[in-house]
Amino acid sequence: MLTGKTVLVAGAAGLLGSTLCQVLVQRGAVVIAADLDLDKLRQRLIAVGCTDQQLVLHQVDFNQPEQVALLFATYPQLTGAVNCTYPRHPSYGRHFFDVTLESFNENVQLHLGAAFLFAQQAAKHFSVHQQPLSVVNLSSVYGVIAPKFDLYKDTPMTMPVEYAAIKAAIVQLTKYISSYVNDSRFRVNAVSPGGLLDGQPETFLQQYKQHTLGKGMLNPTDICGAVVFLLSDDSTFMQGQNLIIDDGFTL
Asked: Cα separation of 230 and 61, whole Å?
């Protein structure tokens, strides 16, 4: 589906980003894999069966405007860009009453700020080159529904308030930028996954599964098909949409 496409994957060393790189290569795309730590990126790519010889690796801090601008300027041939970044402050993930204003602001700045910067520079890239470009943002089911706090009963986990605020904002940011650029050749859409399996406690996994239609927590590969679709010509006139992949979690 992606033969002839050149796709930038931001946050390529992450759980979803590394798997997505592998899938995109398998679908025929030339992949620019970008992340802050190239050693970690290489290790993650090897872990999913993808070598760095199959991709172009690029080191970048997605909270640094000059670096992000340079990233897009380096690859004028881009046809797609996927933002899988997930920057967090060490204070991230506290229970609601334990979150300070400073911590909340810092985490929103890191994560939502990176999402804004990525999408803004993608739009500038399109304005310069005037070639079709599909941007895919990663939101979450918790960007569209209220948290189900019963899932976290008898676990040390919670649903961070910063995460909910950020992911909801990414859905609106997706619509805003698509509307602002106002050109059908430039597409911005979002994918909102349900929970991704990543070593969570068994108690949580069982409680989560009860809210789905049988799958429970998803694997990263379960999300990649929707991203591939949005990057392909099969979604040419989709604009500002949010595809929810959650096995019924939001029903």
From this structure: 25
Q: Centre a 10 Å sphere on the Cβ of residue 137 and count the other Cβ atoms it contains.
A: 26
Separation of alpha carbons 179 and 173, rounded Å: 10
pLDDT in tens, 89-106: 999 999 999 999 999 999
Q: Which residue among the candidates 163, 176, 180, 208 is catalytic per the annotation?
A: 163
| Rounded CA separation 33/41 (Å) | 8
**239 with 230: CB under 8 angstroms?**
no
Structure-block tokens of residue 172:
């609106």
Phi, psi for 208 (deg, rounded to 5)? -65, -45
CA angle 93, 96, 99 (to 5 degrees): 65
Around 19, how many Cα atoms within 13 Å sit in the side-chain half-sphere? 13
Over the stretch 103-133, which tens digit does the pLDDT of each residue have? 999 999 999 999 999 999 999 999 999 999 9
Its pTM surpasses 0.90: yes
How far CA 170 is from CA of 182, 205, 234, in Å, comes to 18, 26, 23
Residue 163 designated active-site: yes
